[in-house]
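Long-time lurker. I teach an intro course on protein structure, and each term I like to show students one example going from raw sequence to a predicted 3D structure in token notation. This year I'd like something fresh instead of my usual example. Would anyone be willing to generate the tokens for the chain below so I can use it in lecture? Attribution to the forum is fine with me.
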Amino acid sequence: MFNIHMVREAWKDMPTARALGRVIEELGIQDNRELADATGLSLERIKRLRHALTLPPEYQEYIDTGNIPLNFFWELKRNVIDPLASKRPGLTAEFGDSEVLDSFVNKRINGVITDVVSLRMVTPIINFAAREVEDPMETSPLDETIRSLVKDPEKSVTEAYEDTVQVVFETEKLERRADNVVKSFERLLGKARTDDEKGFIQRVGLSLANRITRLVS
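-- Reply from a regular --
Happy to contribute to a lecture. Here you go:
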């Protein structure tokens, strides 16, 4: 019946989550893949809906009314709460179970966080903080930035990201992309069948190299 209803009419997130909760209770299925097979929902959606069921009732109400989308809570879990717990456990212990969640929800309600994508900027801050110390319980200089994101209701994610890790993080991404570009040139040169094709690839490569040289010299 769950499957039939979902085909006939798409349910909103919280009604679907509650229905999924009843399926779990009645069938005794806990494995996400088995639940996906039983309900016809994707594995990713199963994970999101099960997370919704763990949220406090008032936050479930936000999802139900459309004030805050489920995607916000999911991205918050994936990009802030889980990385913080695994890589900066000392901060997680300091904040407690619900303070991070409550802080970011309040920022969303008050317009300090206006989009879901910005939550992904928190992960590199946490990762860089973890890279700066050998022991995850040791204090990192970036811990204060993370702490301010939780404690300061006016501190935006974008501001914290731009003030700390943006340049280094995005330069590292650029380095990986540049490596892929070089590999693409190598692959294309290996596939060139004529001197004209090889010459065209070389001209493009030289033009790109010259433009970069002018930028960095």
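Some talking points for your students: The first helix runs from residue 2 to 8. The radius of gyration is 23 Å.
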